[in-house]
Amino acid sequence: MDVPEAWEQTDMSACSFNIHQWAPPGAPACSPQSGVVFYGSATFDPAHGPGVRETSSGTWAGYVYAGAFAVYATGTDRDIVQRVLDSAT
């Protein structure tokens, strides 16, 4: 996976679910508002098809399947979101 160098693994110990997330410093934990999150592909239930889309809040989000995982990335820069997803496949 190629994530931006400034992103860091988020402490998810207080979350009600078990996921792995890397996000920009200061991004909220337990929320995929910015960064990249790994879900088990067998239980991932997306609202749209794979690829990058602009969200209703004006950010960019998308996902790809990579083996046993669905890799979901979101952020304000479409190119970064696309690069992260491209590196997962």
UniProtKB/TrEMBL annotation:
This is Uncharacterized protein.
